[in-house]
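Worked example (supplementary).
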Amino acid sequence: MKTALKNLFLTNPSKSFNSYIQKCVSLLKIFSDKGLVAGGTVFHCHLLKNGVLSERCIAIKLLIMYLEFRKLSEANQIIKDFNGFDLVVQNCLIKASIQWGNLSEARKMFDEMPERNDITWTLLISGLMKYGRLEESMWHFERNPFKSVVSWTAAITGFVKNGSSFHGLKLFVRLLESGVKPNQFTFSSIVSACIEMGDFDLGMSVLGLIIKTGFENNVSVSNSLITLCLRMHEFDQARRVFDRMETRDVVSWTAILDMYVERGELGEARRIFDEMPQRNEVSWSAIIARYSQYGDHIEALKLFRNMVREGFKPTISCFSSILCALASLESLQAGKNLHAHVMKMGIEGDLFIACSLVDLYCKCGETKDGRLVFDLIENKNVVLWNSMIGGYSTNGQMDEAKYLFNNMPARNNISWGAFIGGYVEYKQFDMVFEVFNEMLLSGETPTKPTFSSVLCACASLTSLEKGRDIHGKILKLGFQYDVYLGTALTDMYAKCGDIESSKQVFDRMSERNEFSWTVMIQGLAESGFAKESLALFEEMKRNSSVAPNELMLLSVLFACSHCGFVDKGLEFFGAMELEYGIRPKGRHYTCVVDMLSRSGLLSEAEELINSMPFQPEANALAALISGCKTYRNEEIAERTARKLVELAEKNSAGFILLSNIYASAGRWIDVSNMRKLMREKGLKKSVGFSWIEVRSHLHSFYSEDGTHLKSAEIHDILELLRLEMTDPKHIPTF
DNA sequence: ATAGGGTTAG
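After joint prediction of all chains, the assembly is encoded as:
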C-alpha cells in the first residue's frame, strides 16, 4: 500500500497519463478490497484535484469502491456525474444488491434492463444460487443466450455449494456435451463436488480429464486435488500432489499445513507454518483453529495476538475460533472485550460469530446474555437454535430448552442431542429415555455423542438391559467405534456390573485416550477386580503415552484398600505428588483413611487426618469411626466424633453421617435432635430416589412421597399386599 | 462474473 502510494506520487499525470491512470485504478481496488473507507475518501479528493474523474475506468472503480463501503449517496453522485446508467454501471448495481441480500431489487433491475450481457446473466444466476434459489437460477440459466464457461461454472458451483453435487455433476456432463471447454474454475468446482460426495474414485477419473485438458499444473486445480486426497485420508497422495506442483500459493501451503494438523502432528504443522514463504489471514486462522480444537486454547490466543501484531486483519472464521477458545477457557471478560470488537467491526450479525457468542456466554453461565445475542439475529439457522438449546441444557434450564426445542422451525439430530444432553447432565433419566425414544420414532439418526450421552444415562441407572439395547442400535447403524463411543460403552458395561463385556469393548478399541483408561481402571477397581485394575494401571504406564490422573489414582487407592494392599496403597499415595505431580484431594485422603481403618491401623489413620493441609471430608471421619467400631477403640472414636460434630456445623454431609452413626448405635434421641438442628439451619439432605422400569418406561420414586402420578394407587396396592402377607385369612378382592 | 485453504451447534 505504502509503496503503491509512493509510486503514484512519483508519476506525473501530465507526462505519463496512462501509467498514472492505471496506478490510480489499482489503488482504488486496494482501498475497496481492504475496506479502507477514510483512505478511499481522501483519495477521491486527490483524483478530483487532478481532474481525472471524467476518465471512465476511474469513475467505475470509484463507484465500485463506494458500493463496497455501502456509501449509497456518494455512489449515486458518481452515477449522476457520469451521466446515467450504462450497462457496466447497472451490472455494478446488480452485484451490490445481491451482495447486500436484496434479491428482489436485483431481479427488478435485471428485468428492466434494455440490454444485458453475459456478465449480467451470470451475476443473476450466481446470485440466486448463493441464496439457495436453485430452481429460479436454473430457469434463468436455461434462458441465458450467452452460455459461456463462466455461467456454466456459476451454475455448477451453485449446486455444489448447496449440497446438490450430483446435479452439479450432471450439469458438468451437459457442459462437456455442449462443446464448451471447462476452465480451472470449473475443475476446482467439480473436484469439490467429488469431495462433498466422498467419491475418491470419481475424483480420480476427473483427474484423468484434468490431465487430458492440460490443467494439472494449474494452482487452484492442484489445490482442490490436495483437499480431495486429504478428505479421503490419502495423505501420501496429497503430499505427492503438493511436491509435484511447480508453483505453490498460500492456499497450497495452508492445505498441506492442515494435513499435518489433521494427522495430529501439530509440531510438524507448526514447523511448516513458521517456514511458509507466505502467510495470509486464512493460514493464521487454520493454525489458530487447530490449536484451539486440540485443546491448547492458550497457544491459540498467543497466536491470535501475534497475528494482530503482524498486521493481519482477523477474518470472521478466526474470530469464531478465538471466541470458541475463550468459551472453553470460560474467560467471560476477554470474551466481552472481543464481543465489543466484533460489534465495532459490524460483524455481530454473522451466523458463525453469533453461534460462537451464544456458546461463549452460555459456557460462562450467562444464558441471559446468550439469549440477547440469539434474539438479535433475524435469520436464525439450525446451528444457532442448537447453540441456544445446548446453552440452556448445559445450564440446567430445561424448561427454556424445551420451549425452544418445541418451537424451532426445523430440527436436526444435533438439536435432539443437545436437548437430551441436558437431561443426562441433570440426571432426569426418565426424560432422557422419553425424548430419546421420541427421537427414534421421528426417524432421526442419533449421532455418536448422543449415543454416548444416553449410554451415560444407562450407566447412571445401572440399567444393563437398556445399555445393551443401545449397543445393539449402534451396531445396527454400523457406526465405527470411535474413542468416545468405545469409552462410553466400556463405562456403561462396567457400571452395570457386566465387567466381561466392558473388558471386551475396551480390548477392541483401536484408539484409547485418557478417559478410556480411566473408566476401565475405575470399572475394574469398583467391581472388585482390584488386582486386574492395578495391573491395567501398570500396563498403561508401560505401553501408552497417557499420564496417570487424579481419578485413576483414586481407583488405584480404592483397589489397594479393598484388596488389603496397605503398603502398596501407601506407596501409591506417596508417589502421587512426587512421581505423577498430582496433589492429593480430599477423596484420596478419604480413601487412604478408609484403607488404614479397615486394616485396624487406627492411630495411623487419625494421624493422616490431622496432617491434612485442608478440611477432611466427612466421609473420612466416618470411615475412621466405623473402623473404631470394628476394632473397638472408644478413645479415637470419641475424638473423631467430636471433629465430625464440628464439621457438621458447616455442611449437611457431616450432619447426615453423624445422624446415621447415631442411628446405627440406636441413639434415636440424638438422631431426632440432629434432624431438628438441620431443619433449623436450613440444611437439606439431597433427595434420594429409586426407579423401576416397566415396559421400557421409567418410573422414578423420590424420598419425598407423592411425586409419582399414580402414587395413591400404588399405596393402595401395597396395603393390599401387606394385608395378604400378614393376614392369612384375608382374601384379595380384585 | 466463475474456483481452491480456515469457521459455528452435541
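Two points are worth noting when inspecting this output. The CA atoms of residues 257 and 537 of chain A lie 36 Å apart. Chain A has a mean pLDDT of 87.
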